[in-house]
Automatic annotation (TrEMBL):
Transmembrane segments: none annotated. Mg(2+) binds at D31, E218. NCBIfam families: PRK14830.1, uppS. This is Isoprenyl transferase. It comes from Clostridium uliginosum. Belongs to the UPP synthase family. SUPFAM superfamilies: Undecaprenyl diphosphate synthase (SSF64005).
Length: 252
């Protein structure tokens, strides 16, 4: 067993990750930034800033462990309800993150994809995102999906419209519509469904995340706020996942 797959759980027992059972796709709802800041009597923006640091660490560790796809829920279709100054902080942080990190991510073989409709984002944000996607498009080591202005329902509405359009143009026939076809009309086209969905911050809900794709995902919740989430927490989540019995409706 390679040493990189050996970890200490709860600083006592050593646990070993199975190199052959690393989830192909991990999706994370990066939640708890605001409460993290509040607890420290800091403005919410500081929580978001601290959350960006966690992104750096988790992308690095995911790549090291051989995760193929890492999807990070960064902004939902419902997050527009937040105060203007918080929205502007989030957009600014996104631009800063991309400006600072894209070259390094590119060097590390990270391919960036966007899930969601970013046309409502400030133009600078859209440009940085397009640049990041373009620069990293040939990379193959790990896919980093940034879910931005993403909503599972919105994604399905969009897919239905696209399918209706292709039916009208007779590109497809009614009989062609099946699960596989629908999977090809959503943002995660060509990607495996998430094996593991992680939500820190104590909430136990999906908040409109990957509704189609999560049919057989394993869930892992934790009270840790996203800014405090460490690579060891990721390892623990994967370890838990590896010890689950996934039956997909069948019998073992
Ligand atoms: C997650 O943290 C970041 C986004 C939703 C953009 P929150 O801002 O939701 O933090 P809490 O849930 O209020 O603590
Ligand atoms: C989900 O978190 C969205 C992101 C982390 C981007 P929220 O904080 O928006 O979810 P709710 O409101 O607690 O369900
Ligand atoms: Mg939240």
């Amino acid at each position: 067993m390679l040493d990189i797959f050996k970890f200490k759980k709860d600083s006592q027992k050593e646990f070993v990750l199975d190199i052959n059972k690393i989830p192909a796709h991990i999706a994370i709802i990066m939640d708890g930034n605001g409460r993290w800041a509040k607890k420290r009597k800091l403005p919410r923006s500081m929580g978001h800033k601290a959350g960006v640091e966690t992104i750096r660490k988790i992308v690095k560790e995911s790549k090291r462990l051989g995760v193929g796809y890492l999807t990070l829920y960064a902004f939902s279709t419902e997050n527009w309800k937040r105060p203007k100054d918080e929205l502007s902080t989030l957009m600014q942080l996104l631009v800063l993150y991309l400006k600072k990190e894209v070259d390094e991510l590119n060097k590390n073989g990270v391919k960036i994809n966007v899930l969601g409709d970013i046309s409502k984002f400030p133009i600078e944000c859209q440009n940085e995102l397009k640049r990041a996607v373009k620069i990293t498009s040939e990379n193959v080591d790990i896919n980093l999906n940034l879910a931005l202005n993403y909503g599972g329902r919105d994604e399905l509405v969009r897919a239905v419209k696209l399918i209706a359009n292709d039916l009208e143009k007779q590109k497809i026939k009614n009989e062609d519509i099946n699960e596989e076809l629908i999977s090809n009309y959503i943002y995660t086209k060509g990607m495996p469904d998430p094996d593991l969905i992680i939500r820190p911050s104590g909430e136990k809900r999906l908040s409109n995340f990957l509704l189609w794709q999560c049919a057989y995902s394993e869930f892992w919740y934790s009270d840790i706020a996203w800014p405090d989430f460490t690579k060891e927490d990721l390892q623990k989540a994967i370890f838990d996942y590896q010890n689950r019995d996934r039956r997909f409706g069948g019998i073992k």
